[in-house]
């Protein structure tokens, strides 16, 4: 019963440092958020001690009478939060995170080397949706995630002009490639998804349709983005982004004669995972309770308003926002017109305690040298910031960019030389003092 502070002061101090970094900086990473004390209490609870392989009331270990209730509560709240009829939809709440959730779906519903189509990584897709790198010199293709190792992937893209999913290309390529599964959803797409179009293309080619709503699951639960549940066969999500829960994953599946329930449950355990993390599952359960409150609906609306205010302010300053704006929680800022890479701008922002990430923008050919940055509103909205605060954030970003462009003139193209000039720069120091 010794506190961490006394048991391991070195580690305690590191955690305190990270806490302070999170609170001092402007947290703009679109996939991050601040969980509640209730969620943290679950993560640090006695539930972490328990082995519970299997499903509620069908476990491989004794002593699960309480844990069964925790997991069932989480399942019940997950279905309720998305307005799903338990006769028609089921959910597995055991995936350790988003990537294992996606791979469990593929394991359950596909055979090795089946064909899949997901949004390309440089277009804003996620690695687990199937992605390769190509070497022109060697004429080779390399699978980057296990998805492209075990399945054949032909990604679809966004239109480089509009920044919107190129449904025509998806339609044409799906007709030729005949995928077994089409995956909607992504990590850096600022617009809503045309599920009816995806369904039409999937049906025309005999494909299953999955939505990975990881980024927008909080917005979907509150009706601030379209629901994928009307037409998709399977929906996966993480729970730690706009949903604001602990790090974990969930898989929703239709309950029908196709038998997804048994196949998906079996893929999660025993195929891919061992004992479920019931402390995480409890954290998801308590977060889902919050998600169903009117306050969380207001929060989700504010997330969208804040992202829109940031996009509008950057546009008014003359900058290029991919797709011309945003309909959700994130903004993709195309820095190519300013002739600076996303990597350099990310480093310059780090120097003033603004945390965001380099990101591909429409028209980028490679994920290695991204031409812009991704900026998200969920975390700072949790800290009660509103539109005027986000306009101020946009002004800070503009100031940082002006300094970064001057430093780039001195440093030349290499990132290492650019970074060397950041430390001790008086203009950045002055911005940092105002940010803090
Ligand atoms: N799916 C999408 C769309 C994501 O953006 C992410 C993570 O960023 C994942 C899946 C993977 O989630 P995790 O990092 O929890 O494995």
TrEMBL record:
What the record says about family reads: Belongs to the SHMT family.
Looking up NCBIfam families in the UniProt record yields:
PRK00011.1 (NF000586)
Matching InterPro entries, A to Z?
PyrdxlP-dep_Trfase, PyrdxlP-dep_Trfase_major, PyrdxlP-dep_Trfase_small, Ser_HO-MeTrfase, Ser_HO-MeTrfase-like, Ser_HO-MeTrfase_PLP_BS, SHMT-like_dom
- GO biological process, alphabetically ordered: glycine biosynthetic process from serine; tetrahydrofolate interconversion
Give a short account of what the protein does.
Answer: Interconversion of serine and glycine.
Q: Which UniProt keywords apply?
A: One-carbon metabolism, Pyridoxal phosphate, Transferase
Q: Which PROSITE patterns match?
A: SHMT
User: How is this protein annotated for GO cellular component?
Assistant: mitochondrion
Residues the record lists as N6-(pyridoxal phosphate)lysine modifications: 241
Q: Which reaction does it catalyse?
A: (6R)-5,10-methylene-5,6,7,8-tetrahydrofolate + glycine + H2O = (6S)-5,6,7,8-tetrahydrofolate + L-serine
Q: What is its EC number?
A: 2.1.2.1
Known CDD domains for this protein?
SHMT
Q: In which pathway does it act?
A: One-carbon metabolism; tetrahydrofolate interconversion
- Species for this entry: Cylindrotheca closterium
Tell me the protein's name: Serine hydroxymethyltransferase
Q: Which residues cross the membrane?
A: none
| Cofactor(s) it depends on | pyridoxal 5'-phosphate
Select a single GO molecular function from the record's annotations and give it: pyridoxal phosphate binding
All copies of domain Serine hydroxymethyltransferase-like, residue ranges: 4-396
